[in-house]
Amino acid sequence: MVPAPDAIDLVVLGAVWGASYLFMRVAAPEFGPVALIFLRVIIAAVLLGAVLVRRGGLLTLRQAALPLTVVGAINTAVPFTLFAYASLSLPAGLNAVLNATVPLFGALVALVWLGQRLPARRLAGLAVGFTGVLALAWPTLASGDNVPAIAAALVATVLYAVSAHYTRQHLGHLPALAVAGGSQIAAALLLAPLAVARWPVVSPTRTAWLAAASLGVLCTAFAYGLYFRLLARSGPMTAMAVTYLIPVFGVAWGALFLGERLPSSAFGGGVLVLAGVALATWTPTSRLAAQ
């Protein structure tokens, strides 16, 4: 059973990360995807970087500059921008549900790239989960509308999955805060020239600025700190459960604040995705006890 403080952290984290799709949906049309994500990561980089300076962690970043830059690109700069692009046309709730496919792609990457053998239960989870993805995307594919947005969101989830394995292989020896802060700093540096070139001509509204600031402070810097605290206290299995909460909150915030109403196929597809994630990632209690 998850201790009460960790359960509270888990719910708060799911609510915060679910809200990121709401904030992107509000701010992306005014800032554009690149400028918005640059603001998001530069805010997080400054806040996390300040913590690293206080703890004397900058030397660690210099020693791992190359892998941190790779992670900053494939775990932050590119996928964040792709999701912001998808937010121009896709509902916040649908984006949040698509993000829940990350563990499915993680298992697929382990199978294809790392050659890991997956038990029948996990293979069944992949089949169920990707059936859910097809159900989610089918109305878009059938109509021909927003296909690039769906593709962008799914490419982003693949990059998240690849990054998880890359981080484990190349940055597993570093403190979690160093990986989080260093990757945000690298992402900000990578996006800076593009953000200058793509900065909006018309000044965004106050609402858009508030949404952008919330993305950086709440959904990135604060959320990373909360996630890594949860990871340290309760381990990866508990932390990974946030995957099930993000789409629930993403759909709820979209409905509450934007009046979004997803079609029944989206809810059915979402259930299949989460069921597939459960099958693909669940580890029996007996095995957990032996680890």
Question: Can you describe what's shown?
Answer:
With 291 residues, the chain is an all-alpha fold. The protein has one domain. Helices cover 83% and strands 0% of the residues.
Assembly state (oligomeric): single chain
Number of strands: 0
Topology pattern, helix = H, strand = E: HHHHHHHHHHHHHH
Distance between the termini: 17 Å
Number of helices: 14
**What ranges have pLDDT less than 50 throughout 5 or more consecutive residues?**
285-291
Number of discrete domains: 1
Q: Could you say which overall geometry the principal axes of the C-alpha atoms support?
A: globular
What's the pLDDT, averaged over the residues?
Answer: 87
Helix content: over 70%
Q: Sheet bearing the most strands, described?
A: none
Residues in β-strands, percent:
under 5%
Radius of gyration: 18 Å
Supply the helix-strand structural class: mainly alpha
Give the arrangement of secondary structure elements:
Blueprint: H1 4-31, H2 33-54, H3 58-63, H4 65-86, H5 92-99, H6 102-112, H7 120-143, H8 147-170, H9 176-197, H10 206-234, H11 236-240, H12 242-258, H13 264-281, H14 285-290
